[in-house]
Every structure is written in C-alpha cells, then in structure tokens.
Amino acid sequence: MGCEQWTDKLDAYVDGELDPAESRVVGEHMRTCQPCASDALERVQMKRAVQIAGKRYTASAEFRHRIAMSLAAKSSASEPRRRFSFWQILAAPALALLIISLATNFYMGRENARRRRVYSELADLHVAALASATPVDVISSDRHTVKPWFQGKIPFSFNLPELQGSQFTLLGGRVTYFAQTPGAHLIYQLRKHEISVFIFQDRAFESRGEEAADLPGGLAHALSFNVENWSQNGLRYFVVGDVSADDIQALSKLLRDAG
Amino acid sequence: MEVPERPLLAATFEELAMPLFDQLYNFARWLTQDTAEAEDLVQETYTKALRGFSSFQAGTNFRAWMYRILRNSFLSSRTGLKTMVAIDGGADENLLPAESTTPESILIARADRGMVQQALTALPVPFREILLLCEVEEMSYQEIAETLAIPIGTVMSRLFRARKALRDLLRKQSGGGRDGV
Question: Are residues B56 and B103 both part of a single domain?
C-alpha cells in the first residue's frame, strides 16, 4: 500500500493525540487515500463500540449511599467494611461479644447523642456569631481589655493566655447563653479561620441538671467542626472551630495553661 | 475518638471524588469481574484516597490519581495478583495472526454490544484496562501514563496491541463459529 507511515499514525490520529499540524497532514492524506480513510473510520467505529460496551456496570443505590455517607462523615471509620459470614455470627463466643458490644454501643450511642446535642448547639452559636454583622461586642486583641469587659456581665472571671509567639490572635468577645446560662464567648483567629472559645460555669450546668454537667472531656468532631472541651477550676471550656484537631488542641493548651 | 485532621480538605475531597463514583465502580467491576469485590475495591480506594489526600499535589490530575489508587489496590488484592500478567514485550506471539479476510467494518458491524463485552472480558487485564481508560474514560495518553505509571511510549504500544487483540477476538467470535454469545 505504501501507507505504513500513515497507518502508524492512525491510532494517535483517532485518539486525538496528534498535534494540530500533524493531524492536518494526516487528514489531508486521507482525503486522497481511500484505504487510509476507511482504516481510520474502522478505528473510530471500534473505539465507539468499546465505549458503548464498556459502560456496562452500575453500582447499587445502597452502595453509592454507603460511600457517600462515609465521605460525608469524613470519619476515619471509613475503613473497608469487614464482611462477617453467617457462621461467624452464629458462633457462641461471637454472639456473647455481640451482645456486650450492642449494650456498649447503646450506652455509647446515648453518650454520643448527648454530646452531639451540646456540640451542635455550640457549633450553632459559633456559626451564628461569625455570620452576625457584629461577631464580637468587645473588639480587641488585648486580653487585658477583653477580660475586664466581661466583669459584671457574667457571674465568673477567667484568665486568658498570652498569645505572643503563638499563631493565634484574639479578635474579641461577646456574652453568650447556653441553656439559659450566661457565659463568655471569645473569638480567636488562626490564619483565615475563626475559632470560638466558650467558657461557662460547671456549677450552672449542674444546678440545672443540664446535659453538659458530666460531659466527658476531650476532643471530638461535630458537624465538620473540631471541638475540644474540658473542665478546669469550676469552669467548663469549649473550643470550636473548622481548623485541624492539632490547632484546636494547641489553642486549648494555651487556655489551660493560663486558666 | 479519632478525628480527621483536615475537615476542610475532606470537604473538598468529597466534591472532587464523588462525581467519579460511577466510573470508578464500572472500572472496578471490569477489573474484578465480581460485584462484591468491586464494591470492596471502590470502598478501599475512597478510604485510601481520603487518607492520602493531603499528599495529593494540587494541580496534578485528580482523576488519574484516583484511578491509580484503585488499580494499585486491585493489583495487591488476591484476584489482582492472579490476573495481572506481564504483557509488555514478547506477548505478541500469543495473539492470533490476523489471517481472516473479513473486512474490519463488517466485523465491527456484526459485533453487537454483547460480543464486544464478551471479548473485553476475555482480554488479559492489562489490555482490558487500557482500552477502558482510553475509550470509556476517554483519558489522554498522558493521563493513562499517569494512571498506569508507565511511559507514554508504552501506553501507545500497549494500546496498539490491546486493539489488535480485541479485533482478533472479535474476528474469532464472528468467523470461528458460534463459540459464545
């Protein structure tokens, strides 16, 4: 045929991988060469046939949902699911374990649900404050200005950390209410992120039998925010923000050391 | 309680990764030839990708990155270890010679969807996957090279051999009597 030099290029041509100049040259050759033209056409047809045949499998709605959920939860619990066989579950020791774990899960579930309610309310306060036209009522990066401002507004006092040498900046504070209890809401900035620090009296929760009274301390993840909470000198601290867990913990440590 | 380090990145990951779900599943199903295995593979891919997302270089090809994770996971799976055979170099001899005189266009016209699917299934995995990446995913040679971690030259030669192998299989199916369909 004497067209080998062209045939070699036909795959790249139909795959759209030739540069424009080369592609034009091949195109022009095909206008005058019937065998090459039909060869190229066949390759296109074959591509098309594979494309149609290749779109073959669709995932079940259930599986899609599972993946979407595990991504939405963003939890590291998105480990590959273990498939338990029927017999494994039937096995007596496994069954005993299952009952224990169900009971534990039930308890943990209630704990978590309670924790989640508290956290989602705090997350709401955090978001609402940031969305407001006046996120803070006392605007100052000076802790010696912000702290006295709260005097007479809330029934307790607290210490704020020196931020010199840290990445955090104090933006200011406002009085907030959680379960009808007044508390301090401080807003810190880290890079472009705002972090809320809530301080309430432990006593206030207890006397009202509120949910946060015996809330387990520690770091948690709620509604795409990281939350750290602890109790110190009769005060309950919550640090809420969309920064990494490490950053939340760094700020928590500064507050703890100051308090 | 374990906490993901970067909730913000994770949100972005979801936005990037979820639109690829259908394609990734289709590809996984073609590789594994089994529904449960395909689901495990896709799940593993998303888990690994989410975990490694911080190491993903912004500006590089996210799709190729996801497919590479899926494929590497497949290769280390039991089925993957069994099915993946060396293809580059020397494999040509095993292919049928193109002796039939059936013109390609008639061959393709005769080949319905089921026949092409059967032929694709019969192809060795390296041929099957490169055809899927090129024709179904419409990846460029560059993307295929990134996904399979091979040079572009290898992409072209393997693609050439894969297409030839597919044509030969179809020819055998249509010419060599009713073996199948």
Answer: no
Q: Chain B contact for A116, CB < 8 A?
A: no
Residues B113 and B77 placed together within one structural domain of the fold: no
Q: What is the tally of structural domains in chain B?
A: 2
Range of the domain at B51: 7-83
**CB proximity B91 to A under 8 Å:** no
What pLDDT, in 10s, does the model give residues A210-259?
455 556 677 776 667 788 888 887 888 999 888 888 888 889 988 888 87
Identity of the residue in A43, A58, A80 whose CB atom sits nearest the CB atom of B44: A80
> Is B101 found in the same domain as B154?
yes
Given a contact cutoff of 8 angstroms between Cβ atoms, the answer to whether A18 and A12 are in contact is yes
Which tokens hold the place of A157? 């006092």
pLDDT in tens, A110-132: 666 666 777 777 887 888 787 77
B173-180 long-range contacts, Cβ below 8 Å, gap at least 24?
B173/B111, B173/B115, B173/B118, B173/B119, B174/B102, B174/B107, B174/B110, B174/B111, B174/B115, B175/B100, B175/B102, B180/B115, B180/B118
Which pTM was predicted? 0.53
How much is the ipTM here? 0.82
